[in-house]
């Protein structure tokens, strides 16, 4: 299986709305799925007017999920939440992710998708020293995927939850750019 990424477009909004409405996604993303909400929250990035990337993940060409990738420096309030718990290197990137189809959850697809976006980040963004990801402590499936993809837990503490029903306790995971030596 080959996982690739392409920018999310408005033509993908209906697919994304279906994924966001799935119980396993809605529980953690807590996102409105109306056309207006999708336009509000994804339209700016689709147009290139807002920082960050919304990437449609494809397995052998078939859409399977979404990865959001952004530089923490572009979101000062979020960066500051991380910085209250751990060191945030300049140029650090964060990701958020979902596998859309509930039938495909639990089969290693999330780990493969995260590993692929990490490899893509190292390849396409040579100035990124590390990825930092915050996960609600109760979202065990999500933080286990990060661990399987090579991330290590570096901190825990309160952060604003995506779902107001959740406890603010989050785990912070980090993956540093591999060091490649030259003789």
From TrEMBL:
The record's section on Gene3D superfamilies has: 3.40.630.30
Can you name one GO molecular function term for this protein?
A: N-acyltransferase activity
PROSITE patterns the record matches: GNAT (PS51186)
Identify one Pfam family in the record: Acetyltransf_8
Pathway(s) the chain acts in:
Siderophore biosynthesis; mycobactin biosynthesis
Signal sequence annotation: none
Q: Which UniProt keywords apply?
A: Antibiotic resistance, Transferase
- Choose any GO biological process term that the UniProt entry carries and state it: siderophore biosynthetic process
Q: Where is each N-acetyltransferase domain found? A: 3-178
UniProt cross-references to InterPro entries, sorted A to Z: Acyl_CoA_acyltransferase, Acyltransferase_MbtK/IucB-like, GNAT_dom
Keyword Transferase in the entry? The reply is yes
- Superkingdom classification of source: Bacteria
Q: Does the keyword Repressor apply?
A: no
Q: What does this protein do?
A: Acyltransferase required for the direct transfer of medium- to long-chain fatty acyl moieties from a carrier protein (MbtL) on to the epsilon-amino group of lysine residue in the mycobactin core.
Q: What is this protein called?
A: Lysine N-acyltransferase MbtK
Native organism: Jiangella anatolica
